[in-house]
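Incident log, structure service

09:12 report received: a user says their structure output differs between two submissions of the same chain.
09:20 pulled the input from the user's history:
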Amino acid sequence: MSLLIKLALFSVLLVLMTMGGILYEYQRFITTPLQIDEEGYVYTVAAGSNLSTISQDLEASGLSNFPSKYLYFYGRLEDKAHLIRAGEYLIQPNTTAPQFLEQLISGQVIQYPFTIIEGTTSQQLIDAVIADKRFKATFIDNTLSTVMQAIGRENSHGEGEFAPETYYFSAGTTDSEILNRAYALMKLNLEQLWQDKAKDLPYKTPYEALIMASIIEKETGIAEERAEIAGVFVRRLKKGMRLQTDPTVIYGMGDKYKGNIRRKDLKQDTPYNTYTRYGLPPTPIALPSKAAIEAALHPADGKSLYFVATGQDGRHVFSDTLNAHNKAVRKYQLKK
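09:34 re-ran on a clean worker, output below:
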């Protein structure tokens, strides 16, 4: 065999060995998981980052045992290097580098939950948002009126106008953005539910229904009682009776409320004192749930005009007459 043929065969063998080595490394790269603990790893891709810097960071931080150029060249060969998105990503155990790249391309960023609790006030909500350091702070003042201006809702009072719900958000979400989402959802819910309201209700606008819903929300946490309580208040409004509901008095007292209502508090007139004033208060008094709005718009039929707490599991007893109501008060409240 001539030397030329030997050299040619050696060259072919060398090429095959090189290709085999490359193929082996490629298979090892696409099948070997990153070095991630069982709880996973939160990786942040800053705005302006590129695949080259990310690849270098994975190697430098010990998350990848492969040279940084592996992921970089893989992304270029797949024509995906330019598609990554900024954000926080949770890398799960057994995730390979190519799989992580797909996360970066799809924008599967971490979604954090934030729950707005029904029955709280809008001010309590604002305070909770400001205290939550996961939100990007933009507010310079935490008062309700100032925040409503900051989120572009200066024409709204703000109380009761945020929908209780669990919202999911990604890193970088601002305090303004989360409140705007909750405001928009409440507006949508109210508009949709108003279209299917019962007939002959004493509300002129959806906002008045929202006010009623907030009172119902504060009066009971028992689902089956909401419509019945709504029925009591609707009948009282139609008859020209005062609502005489303690939660509105408490709201009107503001910081003066110390956990107990006294007789003089019931006589102290405020725009929210439904013992001294007829009709609905001027604004909602809390954030009502969707169920409370539905109850306000679909009150239960009946004749009851009064109710009193039994002191048992948050439930109430309902009465058609003042005489029956007074007996219930003596039994459940005065224990006589």
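09:41 both user submissions now match this output. Likely a transient worker issue. Closing.
09:42 reviewer note: The radius of gyration is 32 Å. The CA atoms of residues 231 and 301 lie 6 Å apart.
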